[in-house]
């Protein structure tokens, strides 16, 4: 993937040079507003006029649905803000797992900078294409609905902040303000409604492209076989005797002896490090951090989950399983069928693929602790728990079209397939994000004016509406400041 970064940075340099030359050549036509320079044109106005006046019946329905969606998105964002406050202020372990700040600007390469594994790379190419698509449809939607209600469009154009740009459609504000409040609400909500539709369409396109470009290529596992044991049965951990087999007693042993994960199973080059735990004379394994979390936050009183002493964990098995002996394995279902043909004590050769590296392991099958006589390797597939729960939910949401337990590989040109897949993914995500964020009742967003007009329409008082608007804006800004403080406290 190094080549993509080289091409992308080259594109960033050329684009920045183009913007610089464009601004220099057209400096007389630029107008500074705030921190941005605006370049006004009349490009697209004829198209906006045509659509806005030609399809009035359809646009009336579209505008009505858009207003309803606007209220739903605004309510959703207020609920989302409350949930963010709960996470970032009271769950620092989740914040450390997520890593990203609650206010993360849409800047290329930022996911890589924060080491966010559940987000794909965000190249400058992705950014410029996403901005072009989002801005074009968002702003033109505003303009078309404005023309539906006979509001003139004065100009279109671009806004520049260095190499970063935005698009705008400028209606006649005086005509806009003279229109009934419902029509103003329709114009304001048209952009976010259009972005929401685009998000759905891109998610559908993503699923279609995935089915076309990817094929099943192995069975996945994300854990070794866990066994639920009673805390009272733990007699030794990390070679240290446990005299008080309670949650607090075991935590005390870990802290006083400075027990850390030091046991490397399987290949010495593997990064799998665990700690041995003896329970009623039987050997189990656990990650110390995970065990501490379970002891402090038990799902069920007196019980914790530990890895069972089975072949997979002892061999340090990793990667996607692509074969057993001479039999090919394409997905989790095939793996189950293949293993059902073996018995406890049988020796098998397991072939895996780990980031392109082909590996082989020789395993002697163990016995399932829950089903006598059933041969198992000792692997499992679990949803995230503890600190990783939210990451698992995010991953599952954006991969709804993938079968659990199945590894997928590109059918052709891996770099090209991955590039296109991630581009569509970002187009879907950013459209959804813009639709949601833009309906926050804050001055700089469409949702700010949308909220103010709504309160004005309900109360009949412009003065009260302005006061409510200012109060909500300041309250949200204060909440966002608290979120950033919570993130900073958890991370640093």
Describe the structure.
With 492 residues, this protein is of the alpha+beta class. The protein has two domains: 2-215 and 416-491, no CATH class; 219-410, Pdz3 Domain, CATH 2.30.42. The protein has 16 helices and 21 strands. It has helices at residues 2-25, 45-54, 56-90, 92-98, 110-113, 124-148, 173-178, 181-213, 247-257, 288-296, 311-315, 332-339, 389-398, 414-437, 446-459, 462-491; strands spanning 30-33, 36-41, 153-161, 164-171, 214-219, 223-224, 226-230, 234-237, 240-241, 263-264, 273-279, 282-286, 303-308, 320-324, 327-328, 347-354, 357-364, 366-367, 375-376, 379-380, 406-410. The strands form six sheets. Strands 7, 8, 9, 10, 11, 12 and 13 form a seven-stranded antiparallel β-sheet that branches. A four-stranded antiparallel β-sheet has the order 1-2-3-4. Helix 2 packs across helix 6 (124-148) and helix 9 packs antiparallel against helix 10 (288-296). The two termini are 31 Å apart.
